[in-house]
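Structure first, sequence second, as always.
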C-alpha cells in the first residue's frame, strides 16, 4: 500500500509525501491547484503522481512547468508528455485530458531518479505560463480608446476560445465499449458480460465526471485503482457497486479493475449523466508471465497483484498478464496440467483455443519446472517439451523476446539451458536463459519457508528481472 504523508514544502526533503500549490492558468478568470505526491521511493528512484485542478475558466489545453532543486530527473511518464532540460520540466496534456472545466482536474505521473540524499518537491509551478498566485484571479480587459462609437457590450468583449480539435466520441461503459482496454485473456463471447481468464487479467479505461460504478452479476472479490492510486479491495460485492463513495473532482479520471475470485463477470460501468469513457492510452508494450503458483502469486497478500510479474509490469509501466495457475507443470502428467499445451487455451481450464490475434506480447517470461519433479518427469522429456514449447510460442509471437527462468529451487537447470541453446542454434537469437541462483534467501524471502516467495521476495525478483527484461522490449528501468 502506498504511504502518503501530507507536509509542507520545507519539511518534505527526503520524505514520501504530498504537497499542494495554487497556480494561475492564464487568460481571464484563472487559477489552479497542483497536488504533487511522491507515492514511492527507493535507492536511486521514485514515483510521483501529479493532479492539476483548474480553479478558473475552462481551458482547452494545459502545460505545467516546474524546476527541480536537487538534481532530480524524469525517466518515464504517463498520461502527459513530459520533457526536461536541465532542472526545468514541462508536462503537456495527452490530448484526451486537455480540456479542463472549472473545477476539473487531470492526473498524470512519472518515474524519476534522485541523488539518494534529498528529493524535495518543486517549490513552485506555472500553468500555461502563469506563476502560482494562491487563488483564482481575473485578468481585466484593456481599456477601450476614446471613440465616438459605443464600446462593445460586456457579453461580447471576451475573445472567444478557439474551437478545440474534434475528438472521437466517448464510450458508454458497456463491456463492448472500445474505450475499455482489456489486458490478458478475456472471454468476450457474450455482449452482456466479459469474463477474465487466467490470473492477472484486468481492464483499464478513463472516464469523465465525478463518480463511477461497476455492475457485477453476483458476489465477487476485486481490486480497484482510480487515478493510479492504491488498489482498493472490494470483498463479496454484487449488483451495482459504487467505486467512488466520495465523489472525485470533475474531470477525466482513470480506472483499473482486477478480479481476485468469485463471479468474475464484468457487466459494464455506470457513469454520471452526460459522462463518457475515454481512451486510457495504455502502454503499447505487453509482457506475459507464464508459470505455476509462484507466478500466480499463491500465498501473497494480493495474490496476482503481489506477484513478481505484476510488480515488474507496474514498475516498467507496461501492460502485463500472468498465464499461470497453482500446481501446473510444463509437461502434462496425471494430476498435473501441462502448460506446454494449456498455455495455448483461452483459460486455465477448458479446451477453447486462445485467439493470439487479440494481442501481441513483446516478451514472454517463463518460470516452469518446479512441479514437474514431483511428477517424475525425466530430464530428457522435460528438455524436449521445453524446446518444443519455446518453438510453439515463437510461432505465435515472431518478434517477442522469450525468457526461460531458472526455477528458484534450481530444478531442470541443465535441461532448461539446453532448450534455450537449441532455439539459439536454430537461428532464434531472441531467446534467453535467466540464472536466478541467489536471488532469494530460504527462510527469509519465502511465505512458507522455501516454497513460495513472500511479497518482499516477489519485489526482489521483480527488481532482478527489470534490467534483464526492459532493454529487450525497448523501455527504461525506473
Amino acid at each position: 500500500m502506498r504511504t502518503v504523508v501530507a507536509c509542507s514544502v520545507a519539511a518534505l526533503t527526503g520524505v514520501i509525501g504530498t504537497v499542494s500549490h495554487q497556480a494561475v492558468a492564464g487568460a481571464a478568470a484563472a487559477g489552479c491547484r497542483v497536488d504533487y505526491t511522491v507515492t514511492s521511493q527507493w535507492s536511486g528512484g521514485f514515483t510521483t503522481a501529479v493532479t492539476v485542478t483548474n480553479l478558473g475558466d475552462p481551458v482547452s489545453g494545459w502545460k505545467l512547468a516546474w524546476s527541480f532543486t536537487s538534481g532530480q530527473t524524469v525517466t518515464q511518464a504517463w498520461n502527459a508528455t513530459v520533457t526536461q532540460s536541465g532542472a526545468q520540466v514541462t508536462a503537456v496534456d495527452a490530448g484526451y485530458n486537455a480540456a479542463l472545466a472549472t473545477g476539473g482536474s487531470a492526473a498524470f505521473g512519472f518515474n524519476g531518479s534522485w541523488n539518494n540524499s534529498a528529493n524535495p518537491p518543486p517549490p513552485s509551478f506555472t500553468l500555461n505560463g502563469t506563476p502560482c498566485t494562491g487563488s483564482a484571479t481575473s485578468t481585466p480587459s484593456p481599456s477601450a480608446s476614446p471613440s465616438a462609437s459605443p464600446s462593445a457590450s460586456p457579453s461580447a468583449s471576451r475573445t472567444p476560445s478557439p474551437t478545440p480539435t474534434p475528438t472521437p466520441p466517448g464510450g458508454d461503459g458497456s463491456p463492448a465499449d472500445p474505450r475499455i482496454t482489456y489486458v490478458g485473456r478475456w472471454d468476450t463471447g457474450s455482449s452482456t458480460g466479459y469474463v477474465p481468464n487466467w490470473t492477472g487479467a484486468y481492464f483499464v479505461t478513463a472516464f469523465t465526471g465525478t463518480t463511477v460504478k461497476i455492475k457485477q452479476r453476483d458476489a465477487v472479490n476485486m481490486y480497484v485503482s482510480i487515478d493510479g492510486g492504491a488498489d482498493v479491495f472490494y470483498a463479496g460485492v454484487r449488483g451495482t457497486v459504487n467505486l467512488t463513495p466520495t465523489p472525485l473532482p470533475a474531470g477525466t479520471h482513470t480506472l483499473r479493475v482486477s478480479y481476485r475470485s468469485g463471479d468474475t463477470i464484468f457487466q459494464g460501468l455506470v457513469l454520471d449523466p452526460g459522462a463518457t469513457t475515454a481512451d486510457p492510452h495504455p502502454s503499447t508494450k505487453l509482457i506475459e508471465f507464464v508459470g505455476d503458483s509462484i507466478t500466480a502469486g499463491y500465498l501473497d497478500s494480493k495474490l496476482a497483484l503481489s506477484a513478481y510479474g505484476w510488480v515488474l509490469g507496474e514498475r516498467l509501466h507496461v501492460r502485463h498478464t500472468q498465464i499461470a495457475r497453482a500446481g501446473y507443470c510444463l509437461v502434462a502428467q496425471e494430476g498435473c496440467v501441462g502448460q506446454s499445451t494449456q498455455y495455448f487455451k483461452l483459460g486455465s481450464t477448458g479446451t477453447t483455443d486462445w485467439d493470439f490475434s487479440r494481442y501481441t506480447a513483446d516478451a514472454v517470461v517463463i518460470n516452469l519446472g518446479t512441479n514437474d519433479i514431483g511428477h517424475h518427469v525425466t530430464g530428457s522429456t522435460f528438455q524436449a517439451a521445453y524446446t518444443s514449447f519455446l518453438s510453439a510460442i515463437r510461432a505465435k509471437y515472431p518478434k517477442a523476446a522469450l525468457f526461460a527462468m531458472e526455477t528458484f529451487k534450481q530444478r531442470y537447470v541443465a535441461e532448461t539451458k539446453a532448450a534455450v541453446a537449441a532455439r539459439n542454434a536454430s537461428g532464434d537469437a531472441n531467446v534467453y536463459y535467466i540464472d536466478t541462483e541467489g536471488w532469494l534467501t530460504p527462510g527469509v524471502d519465502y511465505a512458507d519457508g522455501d516454497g513460495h516467495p513472500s511479497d518482499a521476495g516477489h519485489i526482489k525478483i521483480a527488481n532482478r528481472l527489470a534490467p534483464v527484461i526492459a532493454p529487450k522490449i525497448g523501455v527504461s528501468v525506473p
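Margin note: The helical segments are 154-157, 293-296, 308-316, 339-342, 379-396, 413-425, 455-473.
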